[in-house]
């Protein structure tokens, strides 16, 4: 259960996740985005945008290598999976908000 001082409302973020997980932990972000199948650079740009967003949200330096897995989903979509160490449920929530703000993002989980 979340701490007594924490209220679970639609305004709070990360309470349930913080109660279920021990932090710091490795968390895998999954993002599906649109890309132009005839232009490889659009897929590369989307993958780079996801990596930059997660790197910034997790407080990682630019020289830290991230190991992302890229899986095409039909000819119009690509799924990017990226595992990083996070410090809290709120950090996961904030990174997901930032990923959802990416122009080509269709889904995040």
Give a verbal description of the structure.
With 109 residues, the protein is α+β, with helices and mostly antiparallel strands. Helix content is 33%, strand content 28%. It has three helices and four strands, in the order αβαββαβ. The chain has helices spanning 15-20, 40-57, 89-100, and strands spanning 25-34, 68-73, 77-86, 105-108. The protein has a four-stranded antiparallel sheet with strand order 2-3-1-4, with helices on one face. α2 (40-57) runs antiparallel to α3 (89-100). It is globular, with a radius of gyration of 15 Å. The two termini are 23 Å apart. The model has no long low-confidence stretch (mean pLDDT 87).
Topology:
Elements: H1 15-20, E1 25-34, H2 40-57, E2 68-73, E3 77-86, H3 89-100, E4 105-108
Antiparallel strand pairs: 1-3, 1-4, 2-3
Helix pairs in contact: 2-3
Question: How many extended strands?
Answer: 4
Task: Name the structural class.
Answer: alpha+beta
Q: What percentage of residues falls in helices of 4 or more residues? A: 25-40%
Q: H/E element string?
A: HEHEEHE
Mean pLDDT: 87
Which strands sit side by side, in order, in the main sheet? 2-3-1-4
Give me the Rg, rounded.
15 Å
Number of helical segments? 3
Kindly, what is the distance between the CA atoms of the first and last residues, rounded to a whole number of angstroms? Answer: 23 Å
User: What best-fitting shape do the alpha-carbon axes yield?
Assistant: globular
How much of the residues is beta strand, in percent? 25-35%
**Main sheet attributes: strand count, strand direction, barrel closure:** 4 strands, antiparallel
Unreliable parts: none
